[in-house]
Amino acid sequence: MKISRIELIEIKMPLVHFFETSFGRTYERRIILARVETANGAEGWGECTAGETPSYCEEWTESCWAILKDILSPMILNREIESAAQVWDLMRKIRGNRMAKATLETAIWDLEAKQLNVPLWKHLGGVNREIDCGVSIGIQDSVEQLFEKIQTELDAGYKRIKIKIAPHWDYEVIRRVRERFGDILLMGDANSAYTLEDIDLLKSLDEFDLMMLEQPLAHDDIVDHAKLQQAIKTPICLDEPIHSADDARKAIELKSGKIINLKNGRVGGHSESKRIEAICRENSIPVWCGGMLESGIGRAHNIAISTLAGYTLPGDVSASKRYWREDIIEPAVEVTKEGAIIASEKPGIGFEVKRDRIDKLAVRRVETNG
């Protein structure tokens, strides 16, 4: 196939409720969408998962817009592409910028699946059409407010509750959640808020039988995490430092953690996610799909990749209504009362993109034509 047109659109979407982590609060998402098109009018959609500031990683909205427009799009345009799996190699000489690369890479996977008239999840090699869902709940203004949100999500059927933690919001909060909700599937996500100097505190969390403790130490570390994992019973889940299959291999060899959170954007798209999933599955390391407050397009891609065999734990792939009053896809993503999402049998991402909604939300756009 040959991409004859690439359209980049930035939209602004207000969240239903603020989302707070150790990085700060988010009230509104700035999201870059990519639409790729062939000469015969076939199209695919991708989404950039970068945040508004370079806090989760070095990439952010402005950096991704610039490199997508000026560097990556020209590398893809008018090239003969044998398959979507080849797109990563076309961009390989550009270091890093994985979230920007994933924006185009996933769009071309969607395009290719539509051309083949197959659901994206099947095209990626998925085997589990029904995926279990968990939710991620940010830091709240009070523990009582946290209780309300947890109860709402449990009533909605979600199978796993993840709560964000930080030095001012950890042991006592988790203790009270366990006291209030008993043996629910519960995990804590620290977003790199601690160091090995906090090892006694982190050890104390063992008493709460958490499913996992996600990325407690530095965002780029796998060495100190190995030391911490030796010292605590709670499984450590690695997030930010895993950018590639090679990173996953090294972390597994060092025994830096027992679980990996796989985010499409962080690793550069579906092709690298598939490689990491394979390595983890071969080494009996469970993976699950993390979320980055995506719109429906990014969420649809997350659903598709989560059907691979190695995704054995509930991910952060939840219903559209948890974040948006109106999504940019139809139908909106919904979760069954049993806490699962059923992957669509329609071609590509399986949802219709609401172009009129995108146009209303758009704050800038640029087109590159062949």
TrEMBL record:
<dbReference type="InterPro" id="IPR029065">
    <property type="entry name" value="Enolase_C-like"/>
</dbReference>
<dbReference type="Pfam" id="PF13378">
    <property type="entry name" value="MR_MLE_C"/>
</dbReference>
<feature type="domain" description="Mandelate racemase/muconate lactonizing enzyme C-terminal">
    <location>
        <begin position="143"/>
        <end position="235"/>
    </location>
</feature>
<dbReference type="GO" id="GO:0009234">
    <property type="term" value="P:menaquinone biosynthetic process"/>
</dbReference>
<dbReference type="InterPro" id="IPR013341">
    <property type="entry name" value="Mandelate_racemase_N_dom"/>
</dbReference>
<keyword id="KW-0456">Lyase</keyword>
<dbReference type="GO" id="GO:0043748">
    <property type="term" value="F:O-succinylbenzoate synthase activity"/>
</dbReference>
<keyword id="KW-0460">Magnesium</keyword>
<dbReference type="InterPro" id="IPR013342">
    <property type="entry name" value="Mandelate_racemase_C"/>
</dbReference>
<protein>
    <recommendedName>
        <fullName>o-succinylbenzoate synthase</fullName>
        <ecNumber>4.2.1.113</ecNumber>
    </recommendedName>
</protein>
<keyword id="KW-0479">Metal-binding</keyword>
<dbReference type="InterPro" id="IPR036849">
    <property type="entry name" value="Enolase-like_C_sf"/>
</dbReference>
<dbReference type="InterPro" id="IPR029017">
    <property type="entry name" value="Enolase-like_N"/>
</dbReference>
<dbReference type="InterPro" id="IPR010197">
    <property type="entry name" value="OSBS/NAAAR"/>
</dbReference>
<dbReference type="Pfam" id="PF02746">
    <property type="entry name" value="MR_MLE_N"/>
</dbReference>
<dbReference type="GO" id="GO:0046872">
    <property type="term" value="F:metal ion binding"/>
</dbReference>
<dbReference type="GO" id="GO:0016854">
    <property type="term" value="F:racemase and epimerase activity"/>
</dbReference>
